[in-house]
Amino acid sequence: MSLFGSSNFGLPRLKPLSAKRSHVVSVLDIGSTKVVCMIGRLTPRKESSVLPGRTHNVEIIGIGHQRSRGVKCGVIADLDAVESVVRLAVDAAERMAGLTVESLIVNVSAGRLASDVYTATIDLGGQEVESSDLKKVLVAAGQQSQRHDRIVLHSLPTGFSLDGERGIRDPLGMYGDELGVDMHVVTAERPALRNLELCINRAHLSVEGVVATPYASGLAALVDDEVELGCAAIDMGGGMTTISVFAEGKLIHTDAIAIGGHHVTTDLARGLSTRIEDAERLKVVHGSALANSADERDVISVPPIGEDDRDQPTQVPRSLVTRIIRARIEEILEMLRDRIQQSGFSPIVGKRVVLTGGASQLTGLPEAARRVLARNVRIGRPMGVAGLPVAAKGPAFSTAVGLMIYPQVADQETHAGQGGLFSPFSNGNSRIARVGQWLKESF
Length: 443
Known about the structure:
single chain; about 450 residues; alpha/beta; six-stranded mixed β-sheet; five-stranded mixed β-sheet; 21 strands; ATPase_NBD
């Protein structure tokens, strides 16, 4: 039975980690450029001023990554191709860790991610706020978000209000006449999630939890002050660029555009009349998002597109490569700037933007982003995780590391669906119920 096809609109929900026990967590990042499987050992840690929200230390004990096939702009386009790549990535991680993976936490970028805020209020009659009142108001907000064509990925209370006074973090024990909550809900289209689950099931694995890509990359790359004061994390992948906005310690907005680093490569392949793989190499070795005075003098050799050995490489000035790249990069950055503006969260983002994802490694990109976005920009790398090989310490692996961090913050979410708060399991015989039972026994 499909998790995403049942009448109950819930996803499998991660049980909060026990602060006193170690856990082994497996994650899968399915992207347009690469598929990454990581297996990590989470061990309890003492409260620390460094990354204070983290309850566990994360050590990567297995990692496998493969070049992606069958994924286009974050959407699964070929089930067989994705299934085989998932098997290879998981197999490599299992061999390195010396254990077998049965279920995984996976990311989702497709399904037209939507970010909405729902507000609900209940009458208190001048009484003290009790936990049952909190539950009631959260259920009221959660029920507004239920739609048969979309699935709720994340449901985060961003703030409570008492008698119209907003910005209350924890109203428990306070007195008032009316209790309100603002609930940030991230949803995705049901078919996209069903296809994702189908791919994973075909590889004889099950889905333990699903995390929106922008949320995962933000968790990995943002420092505490950024999450608290307000910041945007922009994850630039091969086929998708996603935005997440954090403030007061919570995810408050997400967005995604179906354009990324692969579009830059395709522009180069067309503009220089060369193969995609040669264009990718030119982009990595010679490409830049910023013009340089030496670009006109430097000449680059471009391999021909044909198979004929007599075809000679074309010589082009580096400035041509830069012009092609710059045009597309500026278009992406302008779209991101407009999306942040339209969201209404521009003042909260303030001057702080962090870039992650493989495409963020392009030379000159932070400078180009500073100019177009008119904000301070830094490249974000995965933080607070031990055991990563050198090749996986860059921004390209932020989403996978964020998935590994996610179980530590999963308890911030409320799941008020038809099954009631924190109760996504509909009947005892469904596979969701069995996953839930397994989680209870394991953790």
